[in-house]
Amino acid sequence: MKCPARSARFAKSMLLGVAFVTIPVAALHAQDNQSRVRQGFALNPVPLNLNGKNPALVGLGSYIVNTGGCNDCHTNPAFAAGGNPYLGQPERINTAEFMAGGRLFPPSPFKSANLTPDATGKPAGLTLYQFIATLRTGHDPLDPPGALLQIMPWPAFGKKTDLDLRAIYEYLRAIPPLPDNPHPSPNP
Ligand code: HEC
Predict the structure, then answer these.
(1) In this predicted model, what pLDDT tens digit does every residue of 68-106 receive, in sequence order?
(2) Does the Cβ of 68 fall within 6 Å of ligand 1?
(3) First to last CA, the chain
(4) CA of 64 relative to ligand 1 center, distance in Å
(5) Tens digits of residue pLDDT in 7-23
(6) Minimal CA–CA distance to 98: which of 151, 177, 166, 153?
(7) 66 Cβ contact partners less than 8 Å away, ≥ 6 residues apart
(8) What angle do CA 106, 110, 111 make, to 5 degrees?
């Protein structure tokens, strides 16, 4: 026979389950987004130009870029002299060439691109639309038809949400503009 007390306990535990699982997850989610923006600003290694930028997007973009490995390929060398964590040294990002490209990947002919803002403020010379299209499809609309980016992990990065890709773009708009890295080289 069904025990009413047990059913009541079960119903109560279900309610508590909903209260403890659903509501805190939503709250955590909101908190997590805020902490990613904060963490993004904390991790950013270069002076930012926030003029005309959306600061929350810049912070989120910094979080994605600086925890996402972009530096490993797009800053060459990735670390300043004496700041290479792979050698057990306290990490210091190479801010002098931050995101200015110039990493070679022998034996392939490919070189990582300069992602800093061009003279008109566009990261890698791409509009937001072109930037998102490039990451989604691997084809930079400014390249000849059919050309696909090689080595660049666009099949993975292109799966990010529109908001994430916009945030990456906004962050790259805010970092210091630099000419293409004058000393391209493979990973030292
Ligand atoms: C494994 C190395 C690697 C990583 C990691 C990497 N990239 Fe790249 N990226 C490249 C290379 C190499 C190219 C140039 C490819 C080519 O010319 O075919 C490139 C090209 C690009 C381009 C196209 C630029 C243009 O003008 O067409 C964009 C945008 C870009 N990367 C953004 C990023 C972002 C943002 C991240 C981090 C989320 C990132 N990349 C991480 C290697 C990498």
Answers:
(1) 999 999 999 999 999 999 999 999 999 999 999 999 999
(2) yes
(3) 74
(4) 14
(5) 666 555 555 555 555 65
(6) 177
(7) 40, 43, 44, 45
(8) 100
